[in-house]
Amino acid sequence: MARASPLLLVLLACGFCFATYNLLTMIMHNRVVGRGAGDESDGLLVSDPIIEMPDNVKKPRNAKLPFHIALTATDAPYSKWQCRIMYYWYKQQKDLPGSEMGGFTRILHSGSPDNLMDEIPTMVVDPLPAGLDRGYIVLNRPWAFVQWLEKATIEEEYILMAEPDHIFVRPVPNLAHTGYPAAFPFFYIKPDQNEKIVRKFYPEEMGPVTNIDPIGNSPVIIKK
């Protein structure tokens, strides 16, 4: 058998080391964030992703701040099944230790009631008028939230903006605090690649575009 060249062996060794380093870094990061989100062994959050929460606003684990779960949905069969699964798991986790989950509302932006009204707490709102989405159909979601906030009486001080494909596998703590919302970072959301659009809402005097977190409208826990 032909012997492998020394250069090939060196390249393989470097590649293996690089892959191992990235794997270990990812595991350690997830453990730290996981402890911050769910561990009650100490009194405070351990770590906050993207932007570190100031020490003076971190709350003890025994201080509960309930949040209302709100998700926008359509009356399509696919969306209905997602909502039913999500609501089932919400009920399983809501009252377990460590949970700060409050009420639940499905914001149905179809304009008319459907057959899940008696099964899932639902508010019906109007769809976005034809043509206003300019081809971006998910604009129905923020428009639905606007109508819900104008009409609903929300007891909780915080709101989790969610979507039907979210599933609660553990009790969810409220990681937000006053002016510091909590959100999930998405690797594919890159504000710096859309600076012309972003600058309409984030002027240069506010800082570089890279300061903007790579998040969407959900999941986000925010004070109402």
Report on this model:
By secondary structure, the chain is of the alpha/beta class. The protein has a domain at 63-185 and 216-223: Spore Coat Polysaccharide Biosynthesis Protein SpsA, Chain A. It is 29% helix and 13% strand. The chain has 4 helices and 6 strands. It has helices at residues 6-38, 77-93, 140-151, 195-198, and strands at 67-73, 101-108, 122-124, 158-162, 182-183, 220-223. A 6-stranded mixed beta sheet has the order 3-2-1-4-6-5, with helices on both faces. Helix 2 (77-93) links the parallel strand 1 and strand 2 (101-108). Residues 32-50 have low confidence and may be disordered.
In the sheet with the most strands, the strands line up as 3-2-1-4-6-5
Unreliable parts: 32-50
Largest sheet: 6 strands, mixed
Q: Architecture of one domain in CATH?
A: Alpha-Beta Complex
Mean residue pLDDT: 82
Question: CATH top level of one domain?
Answer: Alpha Beta
What's the number of helices? 4
